[in-house]
Amino acid sequence: MTYLKGLFFIFLGLIGIILVSFILSFSYSFSRPDQWTLLSATSLAFNAIMALMFVGWLQSLIMQRVDHVDIYWGLSLLIAPLPTFLIRGAYFHVLVMCILALWSFRLQIQIKLKHIGKPEDIRYQNFRRYFGAADYWWFSFYQVFVLQGFLACLIATPLQVIMLQFNLNWLIIPPLCISIAGIIYEGIADYQLYKFKQAHQKGILTTGLFAYSRHPNYFGEILVWLGFTLAALTQTTSIIQIIGSLLSFALLTYLISEVSGVKMTARVMHNRPGYQDYSNKVPALIPKFF
């Protein structure tokens, strides 16, 4: 009965996604890309991302783990602006896509290195226990893959705004430099953490960038999307696009600081010797260099 219940809910979910995709298809026409709106671009992203996440869920059934969704997260945000880029992209659009691809590929490499030879990420192990291991094979379709796909559609808003502009100007360069700096910063932090974990099974990394903030990788991630958001704001005068970009960045910052990033890591780390003292001295996100 549990298996049949799972198939029933998966069937309902797929029907719902197909229905939403069909309704959203009325917001765009491939023959008139000059009339595409933010809704049009997001609709195309929704179709591509949900198809990708469904593949990721099927893979989870084979692997018996769901933490590879972190890789699909990076792929989702890479393909989100791709339809609009392929139709309307020009020189500066190519630069934005290259920076986004650099961010995505760096994340995928970091996730693969993190998972090699390791059990499923503790976050998802806790979810599996909390929601019930017997039902998690189908429940994860919604709680992990569909949810993250939906969030990726929203967070990609600044990228969509950029791709919707026919003519991008030089004002986009300084914000994109912020994004590049964020990629470098989080890359260094993740490399330092990777080397530390190779040498120590337990303990707390308090040197390098981790001496200035407890989560330099998350700070770098915020910088990446701050840069993309500011880049979007320099290129549009549409109130809807401006509000959408700001809300997207606010959502990402909230998720990192209050949901899946800082607080979740703190719950995992709080019992480790020395962590309480470390957290009292070192700020969570914004580095304290002096």
Distance between the termini: 60 Å
Q: In percent, how helical is the residue content?
A: over 70%
Cα-atom radius of gyration: 20 Å
The H-and-E topology, N to C, reads as HHHHHHHHHHHHH
- The number of helical runs is 13
Please indicate the count of domains: 1
Describe the largest sheet. Answer: none
User: Care to count the β-strands?
Assistant: 0
Give the structural class: mainly alpha
Estimate the global geometry from the Cα principal axes.
Answer: globular
Q: What's the topology here?
A:
Elements (H helix, E strand, L loop, with lengths): L1 H23 L13 H26 L5 H11 L2 H7 L2 H25 L6 H10 L4 H20 L1 H8 L8 H27 L16 H18 L5 H21 L2 H8 L5 H7 L9
Helix pairs in contact: 1-7, 2-3, 2-7, 3-5, 3-7, 5-9, 8-10, 9-10, 10-11
Question: What does this molecule look like?
Answer:
This protein is an all-alpha fold. It has one domain. It contains 13 helices and no strands. Helix 2 runs antiparallel to helix 3, helix 2 runs antiparallel to helix 7 and helix 9 packs antiparallel against helix 10. The termini are far apart. The mean pLDDT is 89.
Features:
mainly alpha, 73% helix, 290 residues
Task: Give a brief description.
The protein is 73% helix and 0% strand. It has helices at 2-24, 38-63, 69-79, 82-88, 91-115, 122-131, 136-155, 157-164, 173-199, 216-233, 239-259, 262-269, 275-281.
